[in-house]
Amino acid sequence: MKTIKGPAVFLAQFAGGGPHLQNLNDMAKWAKECGFIGVQLPSWDSRVMDLKKAAESKTYCDELKGTMARHGIEPTELSAYASPSASVSRSAASLWIPEVTRI
Question: Of 2, 17, 23, 52, which alpha carbon lies 20 to 30 A from 42's?
């Protein structure tokens, strides 16, 4: 990656903050309305994504990307610091953020 894209927002700090922030579709719509072009996804929050499913299914990852793309939003990173399994997060990320590679 040669340039940094932004602005982006970390969804964990807003998830569940109101009826419009209860799922990824609504959060992506809200983020775009706020002027963001990307979101950092909390990998431990099932309102945003199912981490285990993302690690196992490219189709599921494509669906997540499609949900965000409908609102003009891109995933910028998976946050794993509160996740019980950072390695699963990395596996999931490698399926749908091209800059992430498996170790």
Answer: 2
